[in-house]
Write a structure and sequence with these properties.
Blueprint (H helix, E strand, L loop, with lengths): L1 H13 L5 H22 L19 E10 L4 E9 L5 E10 L4 H18 L5 E5 L2 H7 L8 H14 L4 E5 L6 H8 L8 E3 L7 H8 L1
Parallel strand pairs: 1-4, 4-5
Antiparallel strand pairs: 1-2, 2-3, 3-6
Length: about 210
């Protein structure tokens, strides 16, 4: 469609005719460029995945997401934690679900909610981290599984495309401890629950990571 539109403009404004073959080639090049941009949007640094939480660059925000299961997987919870470039706690959220949701779906729901919150609060330059590599891999593809997980991935991808300065990456569990602890405690708070202050149980962990 874009290639046809450009050819129409060339004919209208420059009196230049483009052959059908040229239009097709330009369309393929545009599609290839778009595909490369999408792959670059969700980088996976497999050889350099941090073992410990790291502060994001100055002027940016990092959001960690994790999920936890309870009662023989009959309840799923997730935890979200936003922190600034100094490592200071900004706010967090936890929630739990009574359903047949899988742990991967719960993590994806958590990521989706985190992206929505970042957009709602007008945040820019946000790095989202999850310790589910399969989630990051799925975001980087152009296809969706025909199930609930696929629908969640599609929603996440659509929101990320509207915010080009958002990125999602994979980290090891050791670098996701705060979000993991919030997820584990999700069942013991009202649901959903917003944290505007550092939970006392996480104070020492956050302070150590800020050092």
């Amino acid at each position: 469609m874009i290639s046809l539109w450009k050819s129409r403009n060339s004919k209208l404004w420059d009196n230049t005719d483009n052959s059908p073959a040229y239009i097709v080639i330009r369309a393929k090049n545009t599609l290839n460029e778009w595909s490369c941009m999408q792959k670059a949007k969700f980088p996976i640094q497999a050889a350099n995945i941090p073992h410990a939480w790291r502060k994001p660059p100055a002027g940016t925000i990092k959001c960690n997401v994790d999920a936890a299961s309870f009662n023989n997987n009959s309840i799923m919870g997730y935890g979200i934690c936003f922190r600034d470039s100094s490592g200071s706690f900004m706010f967090g959220k936890s929630d739990y679900l009574y359903s047949s949701t899988t742990i991967l779906e719960a993590e994806t729901i958590g990521l989706l909610e985190a992206i929505k919150m970042a957009i709602l609060y007008g945040m820019t330059s946000v790095f989202f981290e999850t310790d589910f590599k399969s989630l990051v891999d799925s975001l980087a593809t152009n296809s969706n599984p025909p199930n609930e997980f696929g629908d969640l991935i599609s929603q996440c991808r659509s929101l990320l495309l509207t915010s080009p300065d958002f990125a999602v990456s994979h980290v090891r569990m050791q670098a996701n401890s705060v979000a993991h602890n919030i997820a584990k405690a999700s069942l013991y708070h009202t649901s959903p629950h917003i944290f505007n202050l550092v939970p006392t149980t996480l104070y020492s962990l956050i302070m150590n990571e800020m050092a």
